Amino acid sequence: xxxxxxxxxxxDAIADTPGQAxxxxxxxxxxxxxxxxxxxxxxxxxxxxxxxxxxxxxINDLLRGRVSRFSLDALVNISTALxxxxxxxxxxx
Length: 93
Hints:
The protein is mainly α. It is about 60% helix and about 0% strand. The mean pLDDT is about 90.
């Protein structure tokens, strides 16, 4: 029996390349922060959609963590529509 593979994160396990894993990780983190912002405001999905400039089903996908349905561009656009500034940090692996 072979030893099971070990990964640093779930994104590393499901992505084909380190670049894809980094993209998934960034999208998931941005989605988490947008969802937390919406929760702090106490907005419904309809109100959130209006503030974000997207449809309610799109907000539903975001709040349910459907990472594959969002690009980094789309998430940055949603963030800026909320009046937030997106910052990117690099750190050595």
